[in-house]
What we know:
The relative contact order is 0.06. The model is unreliable at 48-64, 169-175 and 417-440 (pLDDT under 50). The protein starts with a helix and ends with a helix. It is an alpha+beta fold and 470 residues long. A hairpin with an 8-residue loop joins strand 4 and strand 5. It folds into four domains: 1-130, Alpha-Beta Plaits (2-Layer Sandwich); 141-226, 5' to 3' exonuclease, C-terminal subdomain (DNA polymerase, domain 1, Orthogonal Bundle); 236-277 and 284-395, 2-Layer Sandwich (Dna Ligase, domain 1); 440-470. It has twelve helices and 17 strands.
Amino acid sequence: MIEYNLPFLNYNDLSHSFFCLDKDDPTVGFAFDASAIFGPTYPPDCHDTAMELTPGGTAGSAVPNDELRLRLLLGSHLARYLRHKLETQKGYTATVGIATNKLLSKLVGNVHKPRNQTTLLPLYPQTKTEESNVMAFMDAHDIGKVPGVGFKLAHKIRARILGRTPAFQEGLFYGNTQEAVTVRDVRMFPGMGPEMLEEILSGPGSQKGIGGRIWDLINGVDETDVGKARRVPSQISIEDSYTRLDTFEQVKKELLMLATSLIRRMHADLTEEEDFDMPEAGQSQRKWLAHPRTLRLSTRPRPPLNPDGKRSRSVNRISRSAPMPNFVFNLKESDGSLAERLVQEALIPAFRKLHPEKSGWNLSIVNVAVTNMAETAAETKDSEGRDIGRMLKRQNEVLKDWRVVDRDPLSEDDPIIPNASRNESDGSPYQDTWESDDSADDSTHICEICGNMMPLFAAAAHDRYHSMAE
């Protein structure tokens, strides 16, 4: 979309530009001021005028000084338009990052929160001693904040950079460390590169080439494509963390809250409005886009205290999966009643299997999720099959132009039909739209016995019929 709109910019009147959103209809889009990037930038003091005069040029002879910068400018205005539409039509605020790849977009979007956007301008160095904006931006982040570097990978990298196991902050649930190791610390570590990272991070179950992948990420390089949006999410997960959760009544209360949120999310993400021409009494106005087949309950128990009175930090979870109960897909029941049944009939039995002991456990996280989505048939081109029920409901409307309707015999009040004649056998009118010719052409055969006309290829079989009758 950005590529498509680049040639449409009028450098003589940038303040009155138009962004086209539809290749087939040039009137669909929005007006914008292309003389400057919309919203904050990184670095904040960077010159944000998109156009400069050519050497010796005059006013009105502006040309783009950098095509990449111009693309980012268009991206910033498209982001502004989408944020505005999302808020006015759906009521959601959003924070957006505009950059040259997914990694940088995610990180720069966090610079100005909430309800704002930031454009990362990747000005490249003029000399070997200078650093680009991208490297300066990446270097300031903790290694654990880089998308794609999870907790376990960051923990291994910190241990190598520090030369020891990093200490954790007390009272934190997700294993944060009080000893920050920045991207710059990792990049500038002696001998650091893809090979060293491969040595640090490789192990059983590790991804092949993990060292090179992480090295690219900490250098701001991300070659992954922006994937097409799925019709439905691959899973829906709801979780919460707790300072201490060690009684069954507390667990039951929290499971009910999580189950209620889960069902509301399922209704929001997995259903859509049904379009009935004449809805029947009591018929739901929504339909399911997909049915999750699996319900999963996960918990993270805290390990017992060590002899020194301290507790080891653990990130391991235990899970239990079960088939999704069918009653959850009833759209006529309230969210609360469905959540209560889900807790009683599915989540509590799963919890008992995870924790057979009646007491003594201390949970820091509880997660409830639905997975293994089975998409329903629909009319969209990306759906897995056609919705036969909807097709049958709409067939009267779709086929009305091709429907054959029986008519009564021609009466005196009927209009005169040109070239029409009456069937002598039953008196019904028929339309003579074909030029009839009693003479047979080369492709037909007239039987000398019965006088019937037939295709030439059927003549031999017809003759055999008469010979057998004799």
